[in-house]
Amino acid sequence: MAEKREYRMEELARLAGITVRTLRFYRERKLIPPPRREGRIAWYDDDHLARLRTITALLERGHTLSGIAELAEAFDHGRDVGDLLGVGAPTEEEPIHLTPEELADHFAGEATPENLAAAMELGYLGTDGGEIVHISRRLLDVSSALVHEGIPLAEVLRAAKQVRTHADALAELFTDLVLHHATETDLPRLRPLARSVVEAELSLALDRRMRRP
């Protein structure tokens, strides 16, 4: 991985397409993290540059500085990618890296601080430098599709919290079943069977629900 470049204030402002005065204002509003200090010299890096470009993109999309400040605070205090994925955690899901403006595009302007905090609490989102990490491309695509169908993101996240509770119970049931008759080393091999059962039962349940008057 390439080392992050560092910039003096004037160079950073030029690369970000803003004035030094604007950069100072953003720093005072805590829209960007503090620079690294070396004596009286402040050094900024690529994460600062990414954040500044994100701020510009969000402003162009109509977000207010107050809203951006709340988003920035959520990013800075959110879990990082290591906390999100776990060290060496096995998963069939593909994480996806996003910039804040890409996340906003996925959710048609509903990437509010409240919704972002709810997604972080669910464990859907973490941070990796200047980027956001969503734990599952599939969940991101489904959530985005539901929002574009007119379902508010807040409602999607509330439903996801309930689904998480049921999914944890199903995982516990399957694990107990396997461990009662086999060993823990058999779990990864038998995992696809659990997924197939859940998908089939959910499909049948949807059939029953749609036939109900």
TrEMBL record:
Gene3D superfamilies in alphabetical order: 1.10.1660.10
UniProt keywords, alphabetically: DNA-binding
Domain HTH merR-type, residue spans: 6-74
Segments passing through the bilayer: none
InterPro entries assigned: DNA-bd_dom_put_sf (IPR009061), MerR-type_HTH_dom (IPR000551), MerR_fam (IPR047057)
Pfam families in alphabetical order: MerR_1 (PF13411)
PANTHER family: HTH MERR-TYPE DOMAIN-CONTAINING PROTEIN, REDOX-CYCLING DRUG-SENSING TRANSCRIPTIONAL ACTIVATOR SOXR
Protein name stated in the entry: MerR family transcriptional regulator
Species for this entry: Streptomyces venetus
